[in-house]
Design goal:
Layout: E1 4-6, H1 11-14, E2 20-26, H2 31-47, E3 51-57, H3 62-67, E4 75-80, E5 83-89, H4 94-111
Parallel strand pairs: 1-3, 2-3
Antiparallel strand pairs: 2-4, 4-5
Length: about 110
C-alpha cells in the first residue's frame, strides 16, 4: 500500500471503516511535517496492508483539519474501526508511532 493524499472532499471515500488508519495533518511549509514524511513511509513499508496512512495538507483542507480539532502541525490522528482513538501533536520518534499501531493491531486481532 502507499500513503494516500486526501482533502476535504476525498477523505470520506478513502477512510476505511475497519482496521487501523493514521491521518497525518501537516503543510508543505512545515519543517517538522517534512521530517515526519520519511517516518510515515517507513511505517507504511513495515506495516504494509495492515495499516492505512492518509495525509492532509491543512492549507488545502482547512475544514477537515477543523473537523478533527487540529491546532498545530504535525498532528497524527489514529483511527481504529473508523473512529478516532488517539491524537499525537508534534513530531515523535518512529518507535512511538510503532507502539501505538501495534497496540491497535493487537486489539483488532483479538476481536477476530
Amino acid at each position: 500500500m502507499s500513503i494516500i493524499q486526501v482533502n476535504d472532499q476525498s477523505v470520506h471515500n478513502q477512510l476505511p471503516k475497519s482496521g487501523v488508519t493514521l491521518i497525518d495533518f501537516g503543510a508543505q511549509w512545515c519543517p517538522p511535517c517534512k521530517t515526519l514524511l520519511p517516518i510515515l513511509e517507513r511505517l507504511d513499508s513495515k506495516f504494509n496492508k495492515r495499516v492505512t496512512i492518509l495525509t492532509v495538507d491543512c492549507d488545502e483542507s482547512p475544514q477537515l483539519a477543523a473537523q478533527y480539532g487540529v491546532m498545530s502541525m504535525p498532528t497524527v490522528i489514529v483511527m481504529n474501526q473508523g473512529e478516532p482513538v488517539e491524537k499525537l501533536v508534534g513530531l515523535r520518534p518512529i518507535s512511538v508511532y510503532e507502539q501505538m499501531i501495534d497496540r491497535y493491531l493487537v486489539k483488532d486481532q483479538s476481536v477476530v
